[in-house]
Structure formats: structure tokens, C-alpha cells
Amino acid sequence: MSFDFFPSRRLTIYLAKMFILRIVAVMAMLVLVLMMLDLLGETGNILAVEGNGEPELLKYVALRVPQLIARFLPYSVLLATIITLAGLNQNSEVIAMKAAGLSAHQILAPLLLMGFLVSGISFAFNERVVTRATTSLKAWQAVDYATIPDDPAGRGNVFYADGNNVLMAASAGGTGTNTVFRKVTFYERDDNGMIVRQMSADLARYAAPGWKIEDATVFSVATTQTSQVDELVIAPGIERDQVELGRVDPDAETLPQLSRSIDALKTAGRRTSELEAKWWHKISGPLSAMLMPLLGAVAGFGLARSGNLFIRAVIGMALGFAYFVVDNAALALGSFGGYPPLLAAWAPFFLFLLLGETVLVRTEE
């Protein structure tokens, strides 16, 4: 029995190359199919905007593909693991390797190494590409695929409470003293919650305090009269920091950016459990690619006859998909405060790491 973690150099390269090629093939197939289905659903909305055509469809594809890759890369690693190990088992290559003195862990070592490499690439890809694509795509969708505003990180369809009053806007953009609302509607309400006046304008700029609107249309409910006002300050209770902090989108921010947003929210006394869980999940999420070879390993061992290979492949797939279900559930509970953020992000990973190791040891070692 060899006590080296990896098999021979030639066998390691053979297994790693086979595994990587299958990951790329499965990933390409999933992205191609899912992108076609997604594009069929969004083509009508994109082309409904005057002036949009084939360049805009290609632009949508370019922004959507990184999201699909980030989401389905772990699934691709799982399916590639099952395909690789099932093929090796069916061709008796696993039996030959075990007859040569290799353990199940040594056979899986090249796959685990490639899974770790894919995890690192996935993390870098998410930070450098996916966050930017998500920011641009959400900004484009916020304006219904029309011209993207100058501030792609802006939010659409926002509303803020100023005591009994409510400020609504089609979008909020800019930073610092340049923060602005577009297509603004401000409702003044009495103590009973009834609307007293409605003020509308195309733009609202920060006035420290309040927000200044120009060429505003004012409607009085009591008199049912409409008037025009050249300049008016509304919503003195809505601070600029409140607007900026409300624009935090963890999917569109890198780890350093999200760290700064969390610190700002804590300073403002806001709840940050959801964002902290997402911060940790930006690390634990890509690492799931390293976990998939261990969960799918059950498909590579045992006798490849009497339907056993198919049953083992189904078990491996079930373990992999169970991980994603538990991971999403834990993240949701962490967002609601049911779990601490660190536990919500990392508990499913270590739980299924121990589960996969237990299954492998009990059945093959």
C-alpha cells in the first residue's frame, strides 16, 4: 500500500486532464442551453425598446453569461465528477488502480486538486467579472433595457419614509453631495396616514438638509387644485447616508467594497446579518467546487453491474444537490438572523465535507 497522497505523476496528469475536460464540456453545455432559454424569455423585452436590436441582444448575453457561469460552475464540477468516475469504473480502470495498491483517496486526489484550482479561478472570476456584469445588468434592467444611466450602481424604484411622509423615485444615483433622485414623487400625510399633498418633479438634489426639487407640480387634496412651484425643499428627515447605505447590493460588490459597506451600516446602527453572511459566502461558495469530487465519489467505486453503477451515480448526484439545498437554506436563515453569519456560510460546507468523507471511508476504505 502506497502512503503518498497522489498516485504516480503520469496517472495524476491523466485523471486531472480527463476531469478538467469534462468540467469544461459540461459547463459549456449548461451555459449554452440556459442562455438560449433565458434569451428567449428576455428578447421581447429588449427589442420592445425603440432602437434596440442585435447589438443589445449580444450585450445582454455578454452580461448574463458570467452570472450563469458563476451559478452553475459547482453543478458542472459535480456532473463532471460523476461522469469521470462512472466511466473509470465501467471500464475497470478503478479496479486496476486499486489492484495496484491505490486507495480511494489517492484515486480522488487529482480530482480534489483540480476542484481546488477551479475554486480559486471561480473566486477570482466572481470578484473581477461577475460583480461588474451584475452591476451593469441590474442597472440596465432597472430602466427596462433603455439607455443605461451614468451611474450603473444606482437603484431603481426606491422609496423612503420621512416620519408620516413618503418619498418615492424611479431611481437613486450618484454619491456624496451629488446624490440625486429622478422622477420624484413626495407624499405629505397627516397623523392618520391620509395624503394631504402630492409633489412631483423630474429631479431632486441633496440640499443638506432635505432634497431640493425644481419646476415641481403640487397637488392639494383638500382643494383638489394643482399648482406649479419653481423651487421647493422636501423630506428634511431623509439623510444622504441613508440613501447611499440603502443601495448596498452584495452580489454587485467585491469583498473589499462589501466590507466597507458593512462597516458603514454598523456605524449607522443598521442590521448587517444578511450582508455578513453574503460576505462569508463569497469565500465558501466557490470552495464548493472542491467539495463536489468528494460527494460524487460514490459513483466511482463498487461493482459496475446489476444496476449498481446507476444507483451509485444517483446517490452521488443526490448528495451534491442536497448540499446546494442546505447551503441556500442556511444562507436564508442567516439572513433572517436564525444563524450567525459565519455559521450560515460555512456550516453546510463542513457538514457535507464530513458526510462525504464518512461515506467514502465506510464504503471504500
UniProtKB/TrEMBL annotation:
Species of origin: Aurantiacibacter atlanticus
Name of the featured protein: YjgP/YjgQ family permease
Cellular location(s): Cell membrane
GO biological process, one term: lipopolysaccharide transport
Topological relation to the membrane, as annotated: Multi-pass membrane protein
Keyword Membrane belongs to the record: yes
Domain of life: Bacteria
UniProt KW keywords: Cell membrane, Membrane, Transmembrane, Transmembrane helix
Keyword Transmembrane helix tagged: yes
InterPro entries: LptG (IPR030923), LptG/LptF_permease (IPR005495)
